[in-house]
Amino acid sequence: MQLKITQDILSITELKKHTSNILKQIHNTKRPVILTKNGKAEAVLLDASKYEQMMRAFEIMQKLTKAEMDIKSGRTEDAKTFFKRFRSEKNI
């Protein structure tokens, strides 16, 4: 997702004037649009499906980070022990 600064950085005034076209652009290109106010970045508009994809990736990253911390802290057990404990706890 390569940002095209001539197309993807717009003022809030431009958004107000061309909302429909800008939303079509975001949907078609899947690139975010950076909105500026007084020449400074103020917000980012992103296609909803891209946002959901990013959130799923972020959730996976959080889980992997927690798993890495568990490994570094020694909070692990071998599979045989885990399944034995799991079956016992679940009455399987």
CATH fold descriptor of the largest domain? YefM-like fold
Largest sheet: 3 strands, mixed
- CATH class call of the largest domain: Alpha Beta
Uncertain spans, ≥5 residues at pLDDT below 50? none
Counting structural domains, the number is 2
Q: Write the H/E string, N to C.
A: HEHHEEHH
Q: What is the rounded Rg?
A: 23 Å
Fraction of helical residues:
55-70%
Q: Which structural class matches the secondary elements?
A: alpha+beta
Overall residue-averaged pLDDT value: 94
Kindly estimate the percentage of residues that lie in beta strands according to DSSP.
15-25%
- Indicate the overall shape: elongated
Distance between the termini: 48 Å
Give the tally of β-strands. 3
Order of neighbouring strands in the sheet with most strands = 1-2-3
Q: What would CATH call the architecture of the largest domain? A: 3-Layer(aba) Sandwich
Molecular structure report:
The protein has 92 residues and is an alpha+beta fold. It folds into two domains: 5-46, YefM-like fold (3-Layer(aba) Sandwich); 49-90. The protein has five helices and three strands; from the N terminus they run αβααββαα. Strands 1-2-3 form a three-stranded mixed sheet. It is elongated and about 65 Å long.
What is the gist of this entry?
Helix content is 63%, strand content 15%. The protein has 92 residues and is of the alpha+beta class.
